[in-house]
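Per reviewer request, we include the raw input and output of the structure prediction for the construct analysed in the revised manuscript.
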Amino acid sequence: MMKRWMALAAGTLVPFTTLAQENSPGYLGEMVVTAPAMSDPITVETDPKAPRQPVPAGDGAAFLKNIPGFSSVRKGGTSGDPVFRGLGGSRLNILQDGAYVFGGCGGRMDPPTAYTYPESFDKVTVLKGPQSVLYGGGNVAGTVLFERVTPRFEEAGTRFMAGGMVGSFGRNDQIVDATAGAAPGFMRIIGTRLASDDYEDGDGNKVHSEYERWSGTAIVGWTPDEDTRIELNVDRSDGEAAYADRTMDGVVFDREAWGVKASRDNLSPLVQRIEAQYYHSYVDHVMDNFSLRTPPAPPMMKMVSNPDRTTDGARLVVDLAVGDRTGLIVGTDYRDDEHTKRGATTTPRMADMSFEQRGIFAQLEHAVGERDLFAAGLRMDKTTAKADAAVGGVAAGTEDDDTTRGAFVRYEHALSDSWRVLAGVGRAERAPDYWERVRTFDIDTEKSTQFDLGAAFRSGQLDATVSAFYTRVDDFILIDHSLNPSAKPAGAAKNVDATLYGFEADAAYAIAPNWTARATLAHVIGENDTDDVALAQVPPLEGTVSLGYDDKTWAATLLVRAAAEQDRVDVDRGGIAGADVGETDSFTVVSFNAGYRANENLKITAGVDNLFDETYAEHLSRAGAQVAGYGKPERVNEPGRLWWMKATLSF
């Protein structure tokens, strides 16, 4: 894949992603990650296996929350819904090893990140906004890539990593990642298990939030030479989770998936790489109101719901060197998925909606002179949505065809060896998803135009990056979550025009040998221009400051995270992930961690989150529900003081 934010050195493009401190005599590398730094103003790359603070994440949304600009809609102990720059749901493309995963719950009990086990991946990349066309359309907010990268074996050998963590509230996690292979090929097995009891907030109130999750992955690869690779992967996962924001819990999150990838590099001076992929995913989700909570007393009834989702997709990509300084990627992809539901696990399934998507795309990067890079992309998608049952106000058999387009243009310039700047404009159009159409099937596509500005500075001691954006969304899909007798489920979707603008910034400064100070800041403002009110579900200004010590044997970090109050709200309105509950107060949370490298193979880390036992809720938290024995809070509060310890062994 073509790299972004490249500097020219002797006519050769090289990535500009390394922290300044890595070239400083006093910088020895951090053991514990507090907030992943931006690789450049529009890209964040991070290692999900690296120890991190707050407590290592149990799902994809909790992992992404540590990246500036991301929030997570809190529902319980797991399965939060990620939001980037105030935009969530299907506006944020999330792929696992190039495959889309869609959940079954109509109330977003199982968003795609509920089926993501971060430590089972090797690399996570965030592409901000519509500045790429390679990974599907509709990337109004951006794209997140969870990827597994298994290096080729030059000779017979093994690689092994195992980790375990224990913590407050019964937190208990394990992971094993083992690979054996030789030059012709390899086999890799990854297993994870994560569990927690109900946590308590800062006031000692128990939150209905227990969970247990597990996953298993097997990858078989054929690598007869350095340029050829074929991989077959199989995934299986399941779990259960209690929720504090609703009247039911998730008792089955069963996912079965498999896929195959084939790639060949250096076919000719023109064709640098060709890659083909096919994937299949099946999600079987069961929720009820009695397995993980006190069963309802008569005259209330026990309830069971069992939706599922089948997704199949494929992708063909060709990477071309059309000149000494010009690269072009062209490709096509498709995705089919069907959603069914039933009221009990013994009754027949009924298909209620299905989708077909077909896309073509091209993306170009061209080096201009010695310090400049021009990038552009274009894609087109055809999406057909079919109501297989009477849903969203239309009769069974109703179809809706949408043709959407995406495009971007970006220019990057090196002012000096230390300064890089970029400017770009992108367009993304998004067809309505299942959760929007189930409310109002016949609704218009979103059309987003975004302007991006960014700068990165690198010196001997300082590494800093800032990205700013201004987004205009025509026909933004807004959901009214207030009771609406004409809509099933409650709430209707409508189109409005919206504007969002804001920034993310981060900086790292090597203040002394072995000592590094870091800071991040993120802010977004959203306007519902049609109704002349604040756009719902937009997080407040927030930032972090940390001070870390690392001498390659011992490490420690003090982290302070603060969020401002949020009084720009539109109560009972929002998106598929949730609605505004009301205004929220500011809060400050202090956390601390320490680590020890016993040798090059063994790392031990420990920490305490929310050191002063603050009672608080994120602005995007869901409203609390009445759960027997737990009370009914206004919002689902965050955990109180939480101690944890983790050990990782690798060789």
